[in-house]
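Request: Not sure, any thoughts?
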Amino acid sequence: MSEDTARRRTKVVVLALGNDILGDDAVGFLAARAIRPRYEHVVDFVETGEAGLALVELLEGYDKALILDAAVTGNHPPGMVLEYTADNFSRVVAPSPHYAGLPEVLDLARRLGLDFPRIIRVLAMEVEDPYSVREELSPAVSAALPSFIQRAQQVLDGFLRATKEESTPVAPH
């Protein structure tokens, strides 16, 4: 275990995925930046445009992870907050050996016996346009950003409450 991994032990990470110049794709970054001041003393924050196997290194050594991202499923209206756990990504379905999504990352970490978060929550906002080069969000995503931020705070509060309870010693009877 690396020194950096050991430092992370029993810690929580917020991993924001996206791209600042692709409009709605920045929604994860914007939510992370909004909640950072409230949690930065107890939670690590990472913003990255990387995906796939790069996520292994970013998540290794944490106990709990909240991933904030944009999604284009086409099944929900723009602005809807979608919530997933690691169980939703248990089936590996990579279309090619060159692609690795969260299912492949979780499977690799498990097979390698890596010190990986035992609790992973993904909050993804259904977005309208994560492809156009622009720095502003679409109107629907902009209007829904406060609810995305609020849900991220609720998840983090739950993580931190559970962490506190886990570390509180139980008095012998």
The beta strands are 12-17, 43-48, 64-71, 81-85, 119-126. Residues 5-9, 94-98 have pLDDT under 50 and may be disordered. DSSP finds five helices and five strands in the chain.
